[in-house]
Structure formats: structure tokens, C-alpha cells
Write a sequence for this structure.
């Protein structure tokens, strides 16, 4: 009976902690070593919003000497609490939630026996299998639920992890991305996953279109968020090549700045991508020619107005308000579910007569 | 837009009428129209005959100004500027054309950059068959070419001379205060003016939009004549005028300068 009582005390405490939103939500996050990364930005945005909503959300790193993100993400994120696995000071409880990015497949084994719920946060579907041994799935490691960022990713992931239940968080495009108040100069922003793709585009462009050798390219990798947003808004065209993009944040940021995008359609076509909201191609080598023609049109001021209005329409789906609503809904559902699960477990103890022996303090609130 | 177009014309020969009509049509076609079009003409009889019978486009306020004085390009432009009553003006050569969006774009840039005194167009140079040869005025948008991206400065001009003033939208007051174009300077009068303008702290920006189509080395044009006319400039003389521009821009007003062989 004592063991059962102990369990009831633990459950009751967990329930209490959950109801007060005191349970910790640990977001395991990669150390970007000072480089901007859209997926990490989203994680920080979620944690920031959860804290506004009263949840005890915490960023968790593997190593203790992680690089402070405020150097590239800005001081707005300085108040977020951090913890590290390496410090071994973190005590995880039953009511807590550990959210693990798909990239961290290697830590699933370590976290398997944690007494709390584990959820996967998959923003980059392409990395899902990279760190999992063949034949292994998330549920094997006790992660039966996952968060993702788009219907397209969810569909793909459901095909791989058939028993996992998914919820979606709609990313926002930061308010830092705004249209320039001056007419845009002839600068082309390039954002590619691989540095060599950027150089290939620039070099091929100058070779094929020497008449535009005065048009300048900007490689937007490795910048702080503020500088990134500033440089992007001061560009007239952006080029995007990311075959394995999961959500496609960059083109949306570009659209928010009023900068048309010429892009390679990723292997997983983003849900927001339409025929009208950018210049899309399946042919990477063809991007340079599309760019050459587009630059000519831009110089002639003959870019159709419809392109700009489609961009505006697309970006309206990724506002701060929609993001906040989505975070609130998803975590309300998670907490509601977790609360009910504990209540059910406690009910089971009640039906076998434990309640009578329970101290008054831990009686269930009905 | 509060801008006048000044179109200097001297004589009616060598397909003048075709070119002239196309040039005027390019003003008619503007999405944002200039306030007035001033045709500054010489007293040439053939030209007068043509203009008397020429039907002015209804869409524009066209004023024909007869210039009784000197009719070289610089004097014609200066005479036109004396007579306009708008804040800005633009020079249209009779064998060139504006692009359709030019004044719409200029209006946008005037609002965005109120410190700028001269907006240069991105000029498309074409040959006599209308084939693309290259751009002019574009170089200041190349990274690290000038001190400030998109802005022409004195140091840059001292090393690079190839800029085109036709099509540009120029603040009348600044143009007059800085001493107008100098008719005494042969070949490099635009270069000299730009040097003088930047020396007088003018802000000169190229609007990075195609604004003007320039017929390069059209037969019998001024620059064609310098190269192929009855009395062509030799390389020494060409060099003399470049060096002279670099000396004369310190002086506000035109001074008599002559090349002596």
C-alpha cells in the first residue's frame, strides 16, 4: 500500500504542478555557435511565447559552454532560462516535458528512461532518419508524439512514424522583416544551404550576363538576425536554393520584405508555395537564366504587380498573432491531455481504494 | 511631376523627323507626365517649316522656344533652362527616347531622396539598328566603385568619365547656381559639368531603372561628328578636353578655352 501511496502522492503532485503550469518544458536545442539558424529561432520564439503564457519553458543544451544566442538573435531573447545536460543539475520530473529536435536522435537512447514525457520537434524532416539506427522509430525510445511546422512535413513524417501523433505549430516571420522605406537598390540576396551553391550562382551569373556585372550579390549566411533582415530588405531580388528545406522560412522572410524570390522547389514542396508568389523552378542550373531575365525585367520596371500582391497574401498566414494562437492551442492541448492522463491514473488508484489512506493534502480536486 | 523636358533641335535633316517623333512619343507615353515639353529650336528655315506644320500631341503642354542665340547643344539647353518654370528639368536629345516608367520612377526617388540634386537614368546604349550595346551610368551601383553605393562623387569622376546627362532629372536651381553647361568645352562638357556639380557638393544618384535609350554614334550626331566628321578630333585633342574639364570645373562660369595644335 505504501508504494501505491507514494505513487499517488507523485501523481497528485504532478497534477498540481501541471495545473499551475510549473512543470518544466525543456526544449533541447542545438548550439549554433553564434550563427543564425531559422529552426533555432523558432525554438526560441516558442519558448519565449510559452513563458509569456505562463509556462515554465526552458532551453536545454547538450554542453554547458553553449554559445549565447543573443549575439545573433538579439537582446529580446536574453531573459530565457537555459539548462544543460552536461551540468547534471537538471532534475526531470513526471510532469515535465522534454522536447527533442529530430536532429538529436542520438540523445533519444539517453533520455529513454527519463520519468517524463518526451516529444519530438521536427522542423527538418530530412534529418529524421540520419541519427536513428536502421529500423528504429521514435516510439521505441518512448516518444509517441511530435510537433512539426507544416502539413507537408506532417504528411511525410506520418508515413515514416505511423503510430506517432503529430501537432503543428505555425511559424511566424519575425517583425524584424519589414519593407525598406526607400526604393530597393540593385542588390541580390542569396541564401543557399551549401556555400558552394551561392558561389556557383554568382560566378555563372557574371559569366552569362556580363552586362549586369555591376549588380551586387549578398551572401546572407552567418549574419545576425538584425543584419540579415536589414540586408534582405535592401535587396531587390532574392535567390533561394535549399533542396531539403522543411518549412522554407527564408522565402517568406523575403516576401515580407517585399523582395521577390527566385527559388528551387525543395524536395518537399512547402505548403505556402504557389505558382504566383515567386519564380520557382525544379532545375537548379536554370536559376541563373531565370535570374538574368528577372534582373532585366526589374531594371525595366516590368515586374507584374500580381507577384507582389501574391507575396503579401502568402505572408499574411505567418503573422505573430497566428503563431501565438498556434503555440497557445498546441500547449494547451498538451497540458490538457497530460492532466487527463494523470487524472485517469489517479482514478485507477481510487477504484482500488487508495483514496481512503491518502493524506488530506493530496486529495484530488474534483 | 514638377519637371520640364527640354528638347533641343537644330536642323531638319538626316531622318530628323522620324527620330524627333519617336522622342516626343516617349514623353507622351510616360505614366507620370512631365508638366511641360520645351522644344528649343534654332532659326533654321527647314526646321521652322517642319515645326510650323507639326501637330503638337494633345496629351502634353508643348512650348516651342525659338533660340536666337548660339545653337550648340550646351547653349540650347541653357536657353531652355532659363525659360522653364518647374523645379526640375530633363534633357531629351531628339534621337533618344525615355523609357515609359522614367518619370514615375523619378517621382518615387525624388520623394525618397530629397537631398539629391541630379537623378541620372540607367541609360541603354543602342546602335543604329537599335541593338543593345551596353549601359551607361550603371557603374556607381557596383560595390566599392564609388564612395557611396549609387552616388556619383568627385573622386570617382576623376578616374572614370563615362556618364550621360541626357535623360537625367536635374534641379533647376542647382543647375543655375552651379553655372549651367559650358559651351566653350568641346567633347567633355558633360564630364566638366558633373565634376563641377560634385565639387559643389551636389548629390548625384543613378536611379537603377532603365530610364533612357541613347542612340550611340548615330550618323551625323555630335559625337559621331567628333570622330567621323569633316574635322575629327585627334586623340591628343580628346585628351586635351578631358584634362581641360579637370581644370575648368573649379570655375563656376564658362571661360573661353581653345585647343591649339
Amino acid at each position: 500500500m505504501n508504494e501505491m501511496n507514494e505513487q499517488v502522492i507523485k501523481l497528485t503532485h504532478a497534477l498540481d504542478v501541471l495545473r499551475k503550469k510549473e512543470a518544466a518544458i525543456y526544449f533541447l536545442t542545438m548550439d549554433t555557435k553564434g550563427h543564425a539558424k531559422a529552426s533555432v529561432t523558432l525554438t526560441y520564439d516558442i519558448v519565449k511565447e510559452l513563458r509569456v503564457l505562463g509556462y515554465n519553458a526552458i532551453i536545454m543544451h547538450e554542453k554547458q559552454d553553449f554559445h549565447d544566442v543573443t549575439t545573433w538573435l538579439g537582446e529580446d531573447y536574453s531573459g530565457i532560462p537555459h539548462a544543460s545536460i552536461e551540468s547534471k543539475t537538471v532534475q526531470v520530473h513526471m510532469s515535465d516535458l522534454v522536447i527533442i529536435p529530430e536532429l538529436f536522435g542520438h540523445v533519444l537512447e539517453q533520455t529513454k528512461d527519463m520519468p517524463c514525457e518526451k516529444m519530438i520537434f521536427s522542423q527538418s524532416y530530412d534529418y529524421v532518419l540520419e541519427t536513428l539506427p536502421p529500423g528504429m522509430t521514435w516510439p521505441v525510445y518512448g516518444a509517441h508524439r511530435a510537433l512539426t511546422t507544416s502539413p507537408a512535413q506532417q504528411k511525410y513524417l506520418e508515413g515514416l512514424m505511423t503510430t506517432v501523433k503529430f501537432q503543428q505549430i505555425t511559424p511566424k516571420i519575425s517583425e524584424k522583416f519589414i519593407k525598406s522605406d526607400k526604393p530597393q537598390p540593385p542588390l541580390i540576396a542569396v541564401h543557399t544551404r551549401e556555400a558552394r551553391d551561392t558561389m556557383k550562382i554568382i560566378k555563372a551569373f557574371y559569366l552569362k550576363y556580363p552586362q549586369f556585372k555591376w549588380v551586387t550579390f549578398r551572401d546572407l549566411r552567418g549574419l545576425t538576425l538584425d543584419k540579415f533582415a536589414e540586408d534582405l530588405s535592401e535587396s531587390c531580388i532574392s535567390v533561394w536554393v535549399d533542396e531539403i528545406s522543411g518549412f522554407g522560412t527564408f522565402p517568406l522572410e523575403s516576401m515580407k520584405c517585399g523582395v521577390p524570390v527566385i527559388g528551387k522547389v525543395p524536395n518537399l514542396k512547402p505548403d505556402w508555395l504557389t505558382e504566383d508568389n515567386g519564380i520557382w523552378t525544379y532545375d537548379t542550373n536554370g536559376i541563373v537564366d531565370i535570374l538574368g531575365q528577372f534582373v532585366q525585367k526589374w531594371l525595366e520596371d516590368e515586374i507584374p504587380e500580381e507577384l507582389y500582391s501574391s507575396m503579401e497574401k502568402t505572408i499574411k498566414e505567418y503573422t505573430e498573432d497566428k503563431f501565438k494562437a498556434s503555440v497557445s492551442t498546441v500547449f494547451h492541448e498538451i497540458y490538457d491531455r497530460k492532466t487527463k492522463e494523470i487524472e485517469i491514473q489517479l482514478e485507477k488508484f481510487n477504484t482500488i481504494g487508495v483514496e481512503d489512506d491518502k493524506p488530506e493534502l493530496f486529495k484530488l480536486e474534483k | 511631376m514638377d519637371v520640364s523636358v527640354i528638347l533641343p533641335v537644330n536642323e531638319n535633316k538626316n531622318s530628323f523627323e522620324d527620330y524627333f517623333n519617336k522622342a516626343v512619343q516617349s514623353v507622351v507615353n510616360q505614366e507620370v507626365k512631365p508638366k511641360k515639353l520645351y522644344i528649343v529650336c534654332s532659326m533654321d528655315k527647314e526646321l521652322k517649316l517642319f515645326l510650323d506644320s507639326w501637330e503638337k500631341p494633345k496629351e502634353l503642354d508643348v512650348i516651342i522656344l525659338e533660340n536666337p542665340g548660339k545653337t550648340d547643344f550646351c547653349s540650347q539647353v541653357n536657353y531652355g533652362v532659363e525659360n522653364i518654370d518647374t523645379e526640375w528639368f530633363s534633357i531629351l536629345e531628339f534621337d533618344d527616347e525615355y523609357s515609359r516608367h522614367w518619370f514615375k520612377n523619378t517621382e518615387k526617388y525624388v520623394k525618397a531622396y530629397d537631398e539629391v540634386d541630379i537623378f541620372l537614368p540607367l541609360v541603354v546604349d543602342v546602335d543604329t539598328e537599335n541593338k543593345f550595346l551596353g549601359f551607361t551610368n550603371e557603374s556607381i551601383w557596383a560595390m566599392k566603385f564609388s564612395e557611396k553605393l549609387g552616388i556619383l562623387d568627385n573622386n570617382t569622376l576623376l578616374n572614370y568619365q563615362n556618364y550621360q546627362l541626357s535623360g537625367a532629372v536635374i534641379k533647376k536651381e542647382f543647375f543655375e547656381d552651379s553655372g549651367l553647361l559650358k559651351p566653350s568645352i568641346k567633347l567633355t562638357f558633360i564630364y566638366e559639368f558633373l565634376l563641377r556639380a560634385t565639387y559643389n557638393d551636389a548629390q548625384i544618384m543613378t536611379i537603377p531603372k532603365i530610364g533612357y535609350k541613347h542612340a550611340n554614334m548615330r550618323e551625323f550626331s555630335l559625337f559621331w561628328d567628333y570622330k567621323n566628321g569633316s574635322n575629327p578630333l585627334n586623340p591628343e585633342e580628346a585628351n586635351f578636353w578631358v584634362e581641360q574639364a579637370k581644370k575648368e570645373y573649379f570655375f563656376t562660369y564658362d571661360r573661353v578655352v581653345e585647343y591649339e595644335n
In short: Residues 103 and 130 of chain A are 8 Å apart (CA to CA).
